[in-house]
Write a sequence for this structure.
């Protein structure tokens, strides 16, 4: 059976902000399956901030995307043909070949997900890499302890909205979030954050100091730059920063101006620890159990923003970078 796939390729490497011209839609004939392979029809795919880094031709923890080759990323799809004893037609599988309608994959590169327990898209969000990032970053990287005051930036996004809610469930004294609009701030308060502010409304340092009169113990950093500087300024002695992302810099062409107060880490005995979620897979089982229980008890609210159609995936990625999502940004392909 020969199948044609629609794929989105990297057409050019962006300098600064990507545009729609960064992407190109291409129809390709897929190879016949060989022994051990499956043909997957993707139904939902993820767009993520880290993909911006992979558009640059630089050495990093994940290899750069290749020009004129399909982009990659998390996706869930249905097995529609199989030459593997391990995968049956009809299985729903999680894999890393998003940005395309169909993919030929080694069965070992796929993981079966149970869509009777949770919808396919949950495995890209709260029950997937996104949720584990929030949990591992808060608990293992930042060493969260009950009674801590936690600040999270990008708080209305996929990772950030889970960080705040998990911190509350684990016994935080106070949870503070920053986000990019008044509507997002209002939403954070509905989610149970004790305080939230829009970083466009003035100095981050001043707004954070007002929201955290007793300082903060943990900062979960999704944004970097001015946010990190503000967090260092209000951190209590022994405070901990989980350096998860620095989205304020992903499209910059100049080095960041902040943080300028890093030396405060000495006197305050701060820990600033970067992490990549691939190093915390050993927490996946523990996390799945806890998140499964929280979801079953309706103790966590999961937000997502879904864009329809593979053709609109580039626009979904750009919208994510502009902050037009609340919660996890997904593209539905079905
Ligand atoms: P989000 O759902 O949070 O989407 C990105 C958000 O970033 C936007 O919605 C926007 O919200 C915000 N944003 C964009 N530009 C700026 C800016 N200049 N200043 C402040 N906020 C900005 O994405 P994810 O939850 O998937 O990712 C969050 C962070 O976590 C990213 O930095 C990402 O790279 C990182 N990450 C790291 C991982 C790791 O292993 N270390 C794994 C997964 C994610 P707003 O409206 O608030 O501006």
């Amino acid at each position: 059976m020969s199948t044609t796939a629609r794929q989105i390729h990297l057409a050019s490497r962006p300098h600064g902000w990507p545009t729609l011209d960064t992407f190109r839609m291409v129809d390709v004939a897929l190879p016949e399956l060989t022994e051990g392979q499956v043909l997957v029809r993707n139904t939902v795919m993820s767009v993520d901030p880290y993909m911006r880094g992979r558009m640059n031709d630089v050495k990093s923890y994940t290899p750069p995307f290749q020009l004129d080759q399909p982009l990659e990323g998390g996706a869930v799809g249905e097995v529609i043909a199989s030459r593997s004893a391990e995968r049956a037609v009809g299985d729903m599988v999680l894999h890393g070949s998003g940005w395309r309608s169909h993919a030929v994959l080694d069965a070992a590169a796929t993981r079966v997900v149970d869509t009777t327990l949770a919808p396919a898209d949950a495995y890209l969000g709260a029950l997937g890499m996104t949720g584990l990032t929030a949990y591992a970053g808060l608990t293992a990287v930042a060493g969260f302890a009950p009674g801590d005051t936690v600040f999270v930036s990008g708080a209305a996004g996929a990772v950030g909205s889970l960080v705040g809610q998990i911190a509350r469930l684990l016994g935080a004294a106070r949870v503070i979030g920053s986000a990019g609009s008044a509507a997002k701030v209002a939403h954070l308060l509905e989610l149970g954050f004790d305080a939230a502010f829009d970083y466009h409304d003035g100095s981050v340092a001043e707004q954070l100091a007002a929201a955290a009169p007793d300082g903060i113990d943990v900062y979960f950093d999704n944004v970097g730059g001015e946010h990190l500087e503000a967090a260092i300024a209000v951190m209590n002695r022994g405070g901990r920063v989980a350096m998860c992302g620095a989205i304020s810099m992903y499209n910059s062409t100049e080095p960041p101006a902040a943080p300028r107060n890093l030396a405060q880490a000495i006197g305050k005995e701060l820990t600033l620890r970067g992490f990549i979620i691939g190093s915390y897979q050993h927490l996946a089982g523990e996390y799945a159990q806890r998140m499964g229980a929280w979801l079953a008890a309706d103790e966590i609210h999961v937000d997502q923003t879904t864009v329809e159609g593979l053709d609109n995936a580039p626009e979904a990625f750009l919208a994510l970078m502009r902050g037009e999502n609340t919660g996890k940004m997904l593209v539905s392909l079905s």
